[in-house]
């Protein structure tokens, strides 16, 4: 195998594994997500292991000093937040895996070149998971003063009370009237930096650009709702027991709503926010 081929493998192997390590540490230390962190770690090790038989050849062919690419000037774009970091490193990994996939078609490089194609497609899914979790994390931190209202007359007083999140209930409204109210509420809440949540209607949440939706035991499954919403929209779950709350968390709920009388019990069963909302007087 030529030194040129080995250098291409070396450069892209380094890019892929370095990018994966950045993403792994974000999943581990920022999101405390053992599942995503574990998937990234497994992916990183599997890529390295694919070249175990020629590892010495790869290192021997390395010529960092003589790499003409080092002298090519380019302006690095500033990363504004962790979402930018995730996006940049995901692209870095995916592009490097594509190069490794193409190089693996050369006879004698690796026994099973499909490992890179499989890794690339796995990375697409992991990237979405990381981006989704991070984009919702900021909103989750704004749920501390949470109010539920049942009609438009309660909207003004709720906002004036200093809330950070507002959930509107459908009550006896038709689907169309509830949609119109959601649009109006979103516009008002958006102008005052308040999260607007709808109750039990993922389609209304999506169509009105709500910040999230709250479900309960009679709603569609959380996993189905998650597949329908945008990656940054929250899913809350209204629970009345620790068991129900824990199951909702395992299914992907971002926070739990419960009466104050159940709060202590539910807090001991989950590690996502548990909120006892304030209800405006009728």
Walk me through the structure.
There is one protein chain. The chain is α/β, with parallel strands linked by helices. It has 2 domains: 3-66 and 78-138; 146-279, TIM Barrel, CATH 3.20.20.70. Helices cover 55% and strands 10% of the residues. The protein contains 11 helices and 8 strands. The chain has helices spanning 3-30, 34-50, 55-61, 82-103, 114-140, 155-160, 175-191, 202-207, 222-228, 242-251, 260-267, and strands at residues 146-149, 165-168, 195-199, 212-215, 234-238, 255-257, 274-275, 278-279. It has an 8-stranded parallel sheet with strand order 7-6-5-4-3-2-1-8. Helix 1 (3-30) runs antiparallel to helix 2 (34-50), helix 4 (82-103) packs antiparallel against helix 5 and helix 10 (242-251) crosses helix 11. 32% of the residues are buried. The model has no long low-confidence stretch (mean pLDDT 92). Residues 7-128 form the ThiD2 domain. Residues 153-262 form the Thiamine phosphate synthase/TenI domain. InterPro entries: Aldolase_TIM, ThiamineP_synth_sf, ThiamineP_synth_TenI, ThiD2. One of its GO terms (molecular function) is thiamine-phosphate diphosphorylase activity. Keywords: Thiamine biosynthesis.
């Amino acid at each position: 195998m030529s030194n040129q081929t080995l250098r291409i493998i070396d450069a892209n192997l380094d890019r892929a594994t370095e990018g994966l390590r950045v993403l792994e540490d974000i999943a581990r230390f920022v999101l405390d997500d053992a599942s995503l962190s574990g998937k990234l770690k497994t992916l990183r090790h599997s890529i390295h292991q694919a070249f175990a038989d020629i590892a010495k050849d790869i290192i021997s062919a390395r010529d960092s000093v003589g790499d003409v690419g080092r002298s090519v000037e380019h302006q690095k774009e500033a990363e504004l937040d962790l979402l930018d970091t995730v996006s940049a490193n995901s692209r870095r990994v995916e592009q490097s895996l594509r190069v490794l996939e193409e190089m693996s078609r050369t006879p004698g490089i690796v026994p099973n070149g499909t490992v890179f194609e499989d890794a690339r497609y796995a990375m697409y899914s992991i990237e979405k998971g990381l981006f989704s979790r991070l984009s919702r994390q900021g909103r989750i931190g704004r749920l501390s003063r949470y109010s539920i209202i049942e009609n438009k007359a309660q909207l003004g007083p709720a906002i004036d009370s200093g809330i950070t999140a507002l959930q509107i209930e459908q009550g006896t409204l038709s689907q169309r009237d509830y949609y119109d109210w959601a649009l109006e509420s979103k516009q008002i809440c958006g102008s005052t930096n308040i999260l607007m949540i709808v109750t039990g209607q993922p389609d209304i949440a999506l169509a009105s650009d709500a910040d999230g939706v709250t479900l309960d035991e009679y709603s569609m499954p959380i996993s189905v709702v998650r597949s329908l919403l945008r990656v940054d929209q929250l899913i809350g779950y209204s629970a009345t027991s620790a068991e129900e709350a824990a199951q909702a968390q395992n299914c992907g709920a971002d926070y739990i709503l419960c009466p104050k009388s159940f709060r202590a019990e539910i807090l001991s069963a989950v590690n996502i926010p548990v909120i006892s909302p304030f209800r405006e007087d009728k």
